[in-house]
Structures are given as structure tokens and as C-alpha cells.
TrEMBL record:
<feature type="compositionally biased region" description="Low complexity">
    <location>
        <begin position="7"/>
        <end position="20"/>
    </location>
</feature>
<feature type="transmembrane region" description="Helical">
    <location>
        <begin position="127"/>
        <end position="149"/>
    </location>
</feature>
<dbReference type="InterPro" id="IPR036259">
    <property type="entry name" value="MFS_trans_sf"/>
</dbReference>
<feature type="transmembrane region" description="Helical">
    <location>
        <begin position="188"/>
        <end position="208"/>
    </location>
</feature>
<feature type="domain" description="Major facilitator superfamily (MFS) profile">
    <location>
        <begin position="25"/>
        <end position="428"/>
    </location>
</feature>
<feature type="transmembrane region" description="Helical">
    <location>
        <begin position="68"/>
        <end position="89"/>
    </location>
</feature>
<dbReference type="InterPro" id="IPR011701">
    <property type="entry name" value="MFS"/>
</dbReference>
<dbReference type="GO" id="GO:0005886">
    <property type="term" value="C:plasma membrane"/>
</dbReference>
<feature type="transmembrane region" description="Helical">
    <location>
        <begin position="101"/>
        <end position="121"/>
    </location>
</feature>
<keyword id="KW-0472">Membrane</keyword>
<feature type="transmembrane region" description="Helical">
    <location>
        <begin position="403"/>
        <end position="421"/>
    </location>
</feature>
<protein>
    <submittedName>
        <fullName>Major Facilitator Superfamily protein</fullName>
    </submittedName>
</protein>
<feature type="transmembrane region" description="Helical">
    <location>
        <begin position="241"/>
        <end position="259"/>
    </location>
</feature>
<feature type="transmembrane region" description="Helical">
    <location>
        <begin position="312"/>
        <end position="330"/>
    </location>
</feature>
<feature type="transmembrane region" description="Helical">
    <location>
        <begin position="336"/>
        <end position="357"/>
    </location>
</feature>
<dbReference type="Pfam" id="PF07690">
    <property type="entry name" value="MFS_1"/>
</dbReference>
<dbReference type="GO" id="GO:0022857">
    <property type="term" value="F:transmembrane transporter activity"/>
</dbReference>
Length: 428
């Protein structure tokens, strides 16, 4: 079947009758989603990896590890509630701008506005509160953007768009670290640049890839109890959903454990100075990006081609485990660069397959359109470990008195993630 002849039937479980977009529009949307995720991850990686650690260290150098854990744990609140609620509300949004666009635009405005105000914070509490609001905006934006995939792409094409989003995630990680690392000493400049990136990318996306009006769709009237009940997905009734959630949770916490304290690892474990570590962190981001591009560029396409997802997830976990072992035996700048490249290879394969797999385990909910909510619930398997990693890592470092434990625990988590994906039956 030619790509231009993809059937335009409604997606399973979607009573709205939404049809997959024509192939040319899907290609354009895929590029746009790549850029949206570049912007999202640039904010998170630049903020978590460079800007927040510098702000927190500037407030109290001696208490930086514990204070950084406090800041990121407060954001944990936003990560728990914001994305699922925004996803559910976008499912039920009825407007001439569609279901997803209002939440993408609103999230972008909230993210950018408070990000620019972040360097004005003068206490750990204020930093935590401002960063919490930034995360609310980021999660609203991400929930709406992710729901576009099951809205507009047939299952056979989701490996390709998943790979594009995966590349966007990695480019965003590199862009955020590069922008923040190279301009960290230039006042508000990194915050303004990242805020501007979000506004421009999201603005162009919603204008070029216009959402269909949703005013004609039936309105789902539910009370507060029914609305809240919709966030519970029974593991007994939907075991594939539960195993996919567990696998993603473990893989992400394994990846981000050492990444969260990357700047401090460069300073206190590798032995670099403050200015040198900021610059080297940007170099690490570029090396990791190269690794991701090498693996992600073909993994999603190949997964669609062979019709299999799980073997790619298992392979990615093995490569990441090897990467995490490198700094243990080679605690040098060279070892860190090897670690970054191999980690990129493994994570590039994982993120190019992950979203496609997740869209294929969504629970069928007859009579309701819940892709935004269900994907956002799965999104918690990404945001929760990211939010929890600093606290877990801080406890491990404090308990053992060093950073090597972060690499060891990362190996354990990514391998457990590979094991957790094996019981999924709906996906090969």
C-alpha cells in the first residue's frame, strides 16, 4: 500500500471519528513534533542540568546537593498532576482551535513566562516554586503534543514519528545543555533564549499544523468522581499497560540517575573546575547527541519495517548498561565521553521505539476518547523518575559517600526495565 493510500478510518477507541492525516501532512507534523520536543527538553535539560544547579549552589554552596533535591522534588508535585490532568482536559476540550492547540499554546506561555523569572529568585523556596510553575507549563504542552500521535497517525506509522520525537528529545537535551552551559555566566541570557525557543517553535507548529475544530464533537459530561476515576487503569484488566509503565519507569530512572548530578560528577568525581565543568557538560551533550542520532535515525523505521518493538527495547538497555559501567573503570574525561556516546546509542534506540510501543498498549475505553489522558498517565513513567532521581541519588551518594553508586544503580534499573517489557503481549 502506498503511503498516500493509508486508510482514514477512526482510531480504535476514538468515537470522534478522527482520521489519520495524509502522508505529506504526517511528515510535516513529524518534523514539527521533533522541534516541539527539542524545545521541551531544552528547557528541562538546561534547567535541571545547568541552570538550577548553578542557582542552588550560588545560594548555598555547602548545602547544594540537598537543596537541589528539594527544588526538583517540589517540581515532582507538578509532574504527578499536571500532565494527566492536562491530557484529560485536552481530550474533552471543544473549541474552533481543536482539542490540543489551546493546551500547547497555554503551556508554552506559562513555561516561558516563569522561566524568564527564574534567575530573579533569591531563596531555595522561591526557586522551587517558580520551577514548579515552569514544570506545570511544560507538562501541559507535552501532554497535548504527545496525544497528536494516536490522534493523527495509524499504528503502522508510529515507529517513524516516535523516532522523530526521540531525535527531538535528544537534540533538545543537547541544545539545553549547550545553551545553558555556554551562557551560564551571562545573567538572564540562557533563560531568555530557552523561553524564546519554546514560544517560537510552538507558535509555528500550531500555525503550520492546524488542529481540526472540535466544537462539533460530543461533549462528555462527567462529575468529579468519574473524572478522577478515569485516571486509574487497573493492572489486572490492562496488564500490558501496567508492564509498559513499569518498563519505562525503570529505564528512565536508570538513565537519569547519574545525569541529574552530572555537573557535580564532573566537579567532584572527575575533578574539573566550575567553569571547565560547565563547558565540558556542553561537550558531553554534543557527544551524546551524536550517539542518539546514529541509533535513532534508523531504529524507528526498522521497527516499523519488521513489525517488532520489544527486541529494540532489550538491546537499548544492554547498551546503556555498558555505557554506565565505563565511568566506573575509567573515571576520566575520556571515560565520560565514551560513556556519553554509548549512552546516546542505547537511549537513541529506546526513545525511537518507546512512544510507538506505548500507543499500542493504550486501554480500550468504549464510548470515550482518552488518548491524551492515557498517554499522560504513561508519561508519569517518565516525569516521576525524573523528579524522583535527585532525591534517590542524593540518598545513595550520602549513604555511600561517593558518586560511583549512581552508575551501579543505573545499570540495575535499565536491566530491570528490559525484563519488565517481556510480559507485554500486545506488542511483539
Amino acid at each position: 500500500m502506498a503511503t498516500s493510500e493509508i486508510p482514514t478510518t477512526a482510531l480504535p477507541g476514538d468515537p470522534t471519528g478522527a482520521a489519520p492525516a495524509p502522508a505529506p501532512r504526517m511528515r510535516r507534523m513529524s518534523t514539527g513534533l521533533l522541534l516541539v520536543y527539542v524545545a521541551i527538553l531544552a528547557v528541562n535539560s538546561g534547567g535541571n542540568g545547568i541552570l538550577l544547579p548553578n542557582i542552588v549552589a550560588g545560594i548555598d554552596e555547602a548545602g547544594k546537593i540537598g537543596n537541589l533535591a528539594i527544588v526538583t522534588t517540589v517540581a515532582f508535585i507538578a509532574n504527578i498532576f499536571a500532565q494527566p490532568i492536562a491530557g484529560a482536559l485536552s481530550d474533552s476540550t471543544r473549541s474552533r482551535f481543536g482539542r490540543r492547540t489551546p493546551w500547547m499554546v497555554g503551556g508554552a506561555l506559562l513555561t516561558s513566562g516563569f522561566l524568564v523569572g527564574l534567575p530573579m529568585a533569591q531563596s531555595v523556596l522561591t526557586v522551587a516554586l517558580v520551577w514548579l510553575v515552569v514544570q506545570v507549563g511544560v507538562n501541559a504542552l507535552q501532554a497535548a503534543a504527545t496525544a497528536i500521535v494516536p490522534d493523527r497517525y495509524p499504528a503502522a506509522r508510529r515507529g517513524g514519528v516516535s523516532a522523530m520525537i526521540g531525535v527531538g528529545i535528544t537534540i533538545g537535551n543537547a541544545v539545553g545543555v549547550a545553551v545553558a552551559g555556554s551562557t551560564a555566566t551571562q545573567g538572564s541570557l540562557p533563560y531568555v533564549v530557552l523561553a524564546g525557543l519554546v514560544l517560537v517553535v510552538v507558535g509555528v507548529f500550531v500555525l503550520v499544523n492546524r488542529d481540526e475544530p472540535s466544537t462539533h464533537l460530543p461533549r462528555e459530561r462527567t462529575g468529579a468522581r468519574e473524572f478522577l476515576r478515569g485516571f486509574w487503569v487497573s493492572p489486572r484488566q490492562h496488564p500490558d499497560f501496567a508492564w509498559a509503565f513499569a518498563s519505562r519507569f525503570l529505564m528512565v530512572i536508570g538513565f537519569y540517575g547519574a545525569q541529574t548530578y552530572g555537573l557535580y560528577i564532573l566537579r567532584d568525581y572527575i575533578g574539573l573546575g566550575d567553569e571547565e565543568s560547565n563547558s565540558f557538560a556542553a561537550t558531553m551533550g554534543v557527544v551524546l547527541l551524536v550517539g542518539v542520532l546514529v541509533s535513532a535515525s534508523g531504529s524507528g523505521w526498522l521497527s516499523d519495517r519488521v513489525g517488532r518493538r520489544k527486541p529494540f527495547i532489550v538491546w537499548s538497555s544492554v547498551v546503556m548498561a555498558v555505557a554506565l559501567a565505563v565511568p566506573l573503570v575509567m573515571p576520566t574525561t575520556t571515560g565520560i565521553l565514551v560513556y556519553a556516546f554509548l549512552l546516546g546509542l542505547g537511549f537513541g534506540t529506546y526513545i525511537s521505539i518507546d512512544l510507538a510501543l506505548m500507543t499500542e498498549v493504550l486501554p480500550a475505553r468504549p464510548g470515550s476518547s482518552s488518548a491524551g489522558r492515557d498517554l499522560a498517565i504513561l508519561g508519569l513513567a517518565t516525569t516521576l523518575p525524573q523528579a524522583m532521581s535527585p532525591s534517590i541519588a542524593a540518598g545513595l551518594v550520602t549513604l555511600t559517600g561517593g558518586y560511583p553508586v549512581l552508575f551501579v544503580s543505573g545499570i540495575v534499573f535499565v536491566m530491570l526495565g528490559a525484563i519488565a517489557i517481556r510480559p507485554v503481549k500486545a506488542v511483539r
